[in-house]
Specification:
The complex is a heterodimer.
Chain A: H1 9-30, H2 38-46, H3 52-86, H4 98-111, H5 118-136, H6 145-169, H7 171-181, H8 190-209, H9 211-217, H10 221-226, H11 231-253, H12 259-271, H13 275-299, H14 308-325
Helix pairs in contact in A: 1-3, 1-13, 2-3, 3-8, 3-11, 3-12, 3-13, 4-5, 4-6, 4-7, 4-11, 5-6, 5-11, 6-7, 8-11, 8-13, 9-13, 12-13, 13-14
Chain B: E1 8-12, E2 19-23, H1 26-46, H2 54-61, H3 68-103, H4 115-129, H5 137-157, H6 164-188, H7 191-202, H8 210-229, H9 231-237, H10 241-246, H11 251-273, H12 279-291, H13 295-319, H14 328-352
Antiparallel strand pairs in B: 1-2
Helix pairs in contact in B: 1-2, 1-3, 1-13, 2-3, 3-8, 3-11, 3-12, 3-13, 4-5, 4-6, 4-7, 5-6, 5-11, 6-7, 8-11, 12-13, 13-14
Classes of the chains: A mainly alpha, B mainly alpha.
GO molecular function (chain B): transmembrane transporter activity
InterPro entries (chain B): ABC_BtuC-like (IPR037294), ABC_transptr_permease_BtuC (IPR000522)
Membrane topology (chain B): Multi-pass membrane protein
């Protein structure tokens, strides 16, 4: 595998990545159910005339392109932080109960007739994550990665059972929510995107700041403490960042799996173990990956569309199996 | 540490070349669990819209009751369902015990070998895409789906041997893949069929009859004893591949046999009842807590714990919101998750002592 180690190549790779991200954003604007000429797309953004085509670009495709890139980046960085924090390569933001909490909150909101608003999902995600952290730190041994994962898995199961219970009682709720539950970027406007942007930006910024302390933490807790790192603060900050990032993502786009799991692996193959580089690379790669997956989700069964969560699963799972297979024999 | 009398019982059979070394507490625990399972079964059969007094239930089952109403309600409607619940619990629990032993991971469950994901995919496809299919094709199709997924995982994970960690990882990947296809059908299927599929996905023994019981009983009668015979090999495999090899164990052969048992047991349980979650995870834990980690004693105990769990979950699911019935899978998950959290809490306390 190509290793980007030299001090010159890493910024260069980051630049190329940014270029690709812009390209995939453009692709997201140009491609869709309606055929719109690239010149018209350009005009829609810089010379708006109120025609249907321009409205499609401005109110549907532009928010969606930004949403795909933002959610992809957020999920990838959240996954990177969770994997760094738990030192478990299989950890995924979903493991902290965030997806399950958001799903239950959305299902409850729709069941009791409040409609599905991003606020409910975000609140559900945050409450679930805080509960998992609290449960994981019970006992005097404090917060250990294993306890965190077990608490997350158990709480996800419980919340999932409650969600299923409600869906079984109310077919109407099931019909309204099932597209969201599969993970989809459809139907969000700039307004709801706007309410979430500050949290998203805060999470990404915090993630970038955590690069160096996380690298140290991965040397082992004792070593990190010996080097003068306040591990408890690092863990706390990482936890806050994960909740902000994964919470906003799931609120905006439903539970999308695999971005948070796969992207950190791909990045580590390329840039090694230094989180100062892993985090920005993951941010860009996650944005590209979800943008491309979303374009595929819109084009595969035109004029209908697939939930992007399903496309991610179908693309991501074979890659994950390939990763697992390539591990040498070990017991 | 206090000196206690030897905590082991050794059973040797004169006719068969078999000896079992079990924890001293096992017989009492097994007896207690058998009684509990029996009581749960009788309660499950006696409760419902039409109540049958528990004593009459016993009489009717034994064929001593002449009342035709009781005979119909008990023998035709409720008894097969209650028995299916018991057997499903046994199959899942032993499959879970084997998986936890093989992977040396206390969080492993039969789900890892892909049984549930494969069975779910095929069952949901059948319910959503071919709603007119005859009702008995569902368990057969689900079993084939589970088997197919298990074989696919084993083959994909084979890389100069079948290391448990790769089995787990490939299992996670394949589960995600089939899960995406399943949720594709959930998203676009007819809403009524999707509702039905959701009940199956949650795990339910609703409406199971004698025709469902036999296809479950026969594989269990073959593979439960086989698992018990392999219990000692599982103990050695549990020490790690290198040590097991050193002790003269044919690691790959035994492991594939044990995997076959898991697939057959969990596969037939899932085929009949759908994804009843957490039983395969929880039952071995409880059993290990009571009778220790030696698999000869652990397996029968886990089987009975599983039987009690599913039976009690079914009772609760039927009674909690009567006349609306919750699938027993919802109840096992709702019980299982807090149990796990409690385990976590207890281990945290113990670590500090």
């Amino acid at each position: 595998m190509l290793q980007i180690r030299s001090s010159l190549y890493r910024p260069l790779g980051l630049g190329i990545g940014l270029g690709l991200l812009v390209l995939s954003l453009l692709g997201s604007l140009l491609l869709g159910a309606a055929d719109i000429h690239p010149q018209r797309v350009w005009a829609a953004i810089f010379d708006f005339d109120g025609s249907t085509e321009h409205l499609i670009i401005r109110t549907v495709r532009l928010p969606r392109a930004l949403l795909a890139a933002g959610v992809g980046s957020a999920l990838a960085v959240a996954g990177t932080l969770v994997q760094g924090l738990t030192r478990n390569p299989l950890a995924d933001p979903g493991i902290l109960g965030i997806s399950a909490g958001a799903s239950l909150a959305m299902v409850m909101a729709i069941f009791w007739g409040y409609g599905g608003a991003v606020g409910f999902a975000f609140a559900g995600a945050a409450i679930a994550a805080v509960t998992v952290y609290w449960l994981g730190s019970l006992g005097r041994s404090g917060l250990t990665p294993l306890k965190l994962i077990i608490a997350g898995a158990a709480l996800s199961y419980l919340l999932g059972a409650l969600t299923t219970g409600i869906l079984l009682l109310s077919q109407r709720t099931l019909d309204e929510i099932r597209f969201w539950l599969a993970g989809s970027l459809a139907g969000q406007n700039l307004e709801s995107l706007g309410t979430m942007v500050p949290y998203l930006a805060m999470g990404l910024f915090l993630g970038l700041l955590l690069g160096r302390p996380l690298t140290l933490l991965n040397l082992g807790e004792d070593v990190a403490q010996g080097l003068g790192l306040q591990t408890i603060w690092v863990k706390g900050a990482a936890a806050v960042a994960v909740v902000l990032l994964a919470g906003t993502s799931v609120a905006l786009a439903g539970p999308i799996g695999f971005v948070g799991l796969v992207v950190p692996h791909m990045v580590r193959f390329g840039v090694g173990t230094d989180y100062r580089w892993i985090v920005p690379y993951a941010m860009i790669l996650g944005g590209i990956l979800l943008s491309v997956a979303d374009i595929a989700a819109r084009l595969l069964i035109r004029p209908q569309e697939l939930p992007v969560g399903i496309v991610m699963g179908l693309l991501g799972a074979p890659f994950f199996i390939y990763l697992a297979r390539s591990r040498r024999k070990q017991t | 540490m206090k000196l206690t009398p030897a905590p082991w019982l050794t059973l040797r059979l004169r006719q068969l070349p078999l000896s079992l070394r079990i924890d001293r507490r096992t017989p009492a625990v097994v007896l207690g669990l058998t009684i509990l399972a029996g009581v749960a079964l009788i309660v499950n059969v006696s409760q419902g819209e039409y109540r049958v007094p528990p004593l009459e239930v016993v009489k009717t089952i034994l064929g001593l009751s002449a009342d035709p109403d009781y005979t119909f309600v008990v023998n035709t409607l409720r008894l097969p369902r209650a028995l299916v619940a018991l057997l499903v619990g046994m199959g899942l629990a032993v499959a879970g015990a084997i998986m936890q032993g093989l992977t040396r991971n206390p969080l492993a469950a039969p789900e890892i070998v892909g049984i549930n994901s494969g069975a779910s995919l095929v069952a949901v496809a059948l319910i959503v895409l071919v709603p007119t299919a005859p009702i008995f094709s569902l368990p057969v199709a689900a079993f084939m789906g589970g088997l197919g997924a298990a074989i696919a995982i084993y083959l994909l994970a084979w890389n100069q041997g079948s290391a448990p960690i790769r089995l787990i990882l490939v299992g996670v990947g394949l589960t995600a893949f089939t899960g995406s296809l399943t949720s594709l059908m959930i998203t676009f299927g007819n809403i009524y069929n999707v509702s039905q599929a959701l009940v199956w996905l949650t795990g339910s023994v609703y409406g199971r009859s004698w025709e469902h019981l036999w296809p479950l009983l026969i594989p269990l009668m073959v593979f439960l004893p086989l698992s018990l015979l392999l219990a000692r090999d599982l103990d050695t495999l549990n020490l790690g591949d290198d040590l097991a090899l050193g002790l003269g164990n044919r690691v790959e052969q035994k492991r594939s046999l044990l995997l076959l048992c898991t697939v057959a047991l969990a596969g037939s349980a899932v085929a009949i009842a759908g994804n009843v979650g957490f039983v395969g995870l929880m039952a071995p834990h409880l059993a290990r807590h009571w009778v220790g980690a030696s698999h000869s004693g652990l397996m029968p105990t886990a089987a009975l714990v599983g039987a009690c769990l599913v039976e009690l979950a079914d009772v609760l699911g039927r009674l909690l919101f009567a006349p609306i019935e919750l699938p027993c899978g919802v109840i096992t998950a709702a019980i299982g998750a807090p149990y796990f959290l409690w385990l976590l809490y207890r281990d945290g306390q113990r670590a500090t002592q």
